């Protein structure tokens, strides 16, 4: 948790404009990881 807090902090120091795209990229990445994990679990369960 602390590492996640530090990364956005450093991104904020670089610029507010850069922070918004970073957040926009991170959220779909997190969602895609959850979706892929869910699909893998379903595939293993069916198999």
Automatic annotation (TrEMBL):
Keywords: Membrane, Transmembrane, Transmembrane helix. It comes from the Eukaryota. The chain crosses the membrane at residues 29-46. This is Uncharacterized protein. It comes from Chiloscyllium punctatum. The lineage of its organism: Eukaryota, Metazoa, Chordata, Craniata, Vertebrata.
